[in-house]
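Changelog note: in this version the structure field was regenerated for every chain. One regenerated record is shown below for reference.
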Amino acid sequence: MKIAIHGRNFPESARPYIQSMFEELARRQAELIISQGYREFLDNAGVAHYSQATYTVEDGVTDADFIFSLGGDGTLLDAVTHVGPGRFRLSV
């Protein structure tokens, strides 16, 4: 299963929850592709994400089974623009 992940900066209080999500995805051996900007934030925040794969907003996501949006409404709207039309079904 390949999962694309996009997010925005988060407060330090959210860090354990984000880390826990990445640990669970690694435990389940999910293949991750992280938006380049979010990956840079995760690296600077010291969050282990277990993925070397990134995508750029310009190139978008073309081969993921799911996309996870970590943030609020604006982040979700950003994530929707990263996928091609008709490629994914949006679930909230």
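Spot check on this record: Residues 2-81 form one domain. The helical segments are 15-27, 36-45, 73-81.
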